[in-house]
């Protein structure tokens, strides 16, 4: 069963990436709420986090990382530093801004 699952993951990397981002963001929000000792889980907040992750973060990061790997191929230290620098100076501020903007406009 695992080989069949992995075959689908390799065949549909975009779907896998978007699904993982959405589930990890929503799961992370639930764990954060649980550890912050709230009386009840705020499902609206978790839903908003999941919507932002599914609609933007999974898609953006899939295509951004693909662009970086094609534009700067290789695993040498210099290439990794270039990719890391571009990621942290370009993509990270954009992704953070989208996340906080998405959280500030709650879906009713």
From TrEMBL:
InterPro entries: Mpv17_PMP22. It is a multi-pass membrane protein. Keywords: Membrane, Transmembrane, Transmembrane helix. It is found in: Membrane. Its main location: membrane. Belongs to the peroxisomal membrane protein PXMP2/4 family. PANTHER family: MPV17-LIKE PROTEIN, PEROXISOMAL MEMBRANE PROTEIN 2, PXMP2 MPV17. This is Mpv17-like protein. The lineage of its organism: Eukaryota, Metazoa, Chordata, Craniata, Vertebrata.
């Amino acid at each position: 069963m695992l080989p069949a699952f992995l075959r689908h993951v390799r065949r549909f990397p975009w779907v896998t990436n978007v699904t993982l981002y959405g589930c990890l963001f929503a799961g992370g929000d639930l764990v954060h709420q649980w550890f912050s000792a709230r009386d009840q889980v705020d499902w609206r907040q978790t839903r908003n986090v999941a919507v932002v992750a599914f609609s933007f973060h999974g898609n953006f990061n899939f295509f951004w990382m693909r662009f970086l790997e094609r534009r700067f191929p290789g695993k040498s230290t210099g290439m990794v530093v270039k990719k890391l620098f571009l990621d942290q100076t370009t993509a990270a501020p954009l992704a953070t801004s989208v996340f906080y903007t998405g959280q500030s406009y709650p879906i009713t």
